[in-house]
Amino acid sequence: MWEATDVPPSLIVQRAKDNLDEWSCIQRARQPQMSTPPVFPWTKPPISYLKCNVDCALFNNNTITGFGFCFRDSSGQFVTGMSNYSHSATSPLEAEALGLFEAIQFAIDRDMTSVIFEADCKLVVDLVYSPIVPQNEIGDIITSCKHLMSVHNSYVVRHTRRQTNRVAHSIARASLSHPNPYIFDYVPDNFVLYNYQ
Q1: Where are the domains of the chain?
Q2: pLDDT tens digit string along 116-168?
Q3: Residues 191/79, Cβ–Cβ less than 8 Å
Q4: CATH number among 3.30.420.10, 3.40.109.10, 3.40.50.300, 3.10.490.10, domain 50-184
């Protein structure tokens, strides 16, 4: 009936299939590809070392600073951890540095000898090993960290990916839910230690 031409049914079906294939192809191209994110597992420290993961959290438009850290041994077992918060306006960089300082001080107070501190803020880790320290609040905190580490030369600070720092991040996020400060002597039920190598 269309333009007085007679089209066989098989051709109509083929055209419909071709149109459907084109439409499906365009729809797949429009949708973002859902790929599985890479897995970065937490790694155990060497024998006789502890590993301390440190992170911070900012609340209430950065007027409350929370931090958290946890220590695990060379078998991956949770040893202890702590959360704390303060009502002070700080930058994220200052908060990360303050969390690191508190973790180092905590380790010293408990006579921990060989500790690898891991933070997911690369700038803080770089500043700890930089010969040049900024002349501001962050510089003061970094200088304090350097002083503590100079007295305990078996302490090391390393950068880690955010994905491997989830336990410390969870503790920092929960800092407002606990008495201030709060020391963990066991793994809380809502914290998962995640896979490690």
Answers
A1: 50-184
A2: 999 999 999 999 999 998 899 999 999 999 999 999 999 999 999 988 888 88
A3: no
A4: 3.30.420.10
Per DSSP, the three-state class of 156 is strand
| Residues in contact with 164: Cβ distance below 8 Å, sequence separation at least 6, in sequence order | 40, 41, 42, 43, 53, 118, 120, 194
Q: Of 80, 75, 56, 54, whose CA–CA distance to 156 is shortest?
A: 54
Dihedral angle computed from the Cα positions of residues 169, 170, 175 and 179, in that order, rounded to the nearest 10 degrees = -140
Across the chain, the runs of DSSP E, i.e. the strands, are: 50-59, 64-72, 78-86, 115-119, 155-159, 182-184
Report which residue type is found at 38. P
User: Amino acid letter at 56?
Assistant: C
* Residue-level length of the chain: 197
Instruction: Return the closest-CA partner of residue 169 out of 143, 196, 191.
Output: 191
Q: Answer yes or no: is pLDDT of 3 > 70.
A: no
Output the six-digit token pair for 100.
């690191």
Find out whether 86 and 65 touch, Cβ atoms under 8 Å: yes
Rounded distance between C-alpha atoms, residue 14 and residue 22, angstroms: 12
**Structure pTM?**
0.76
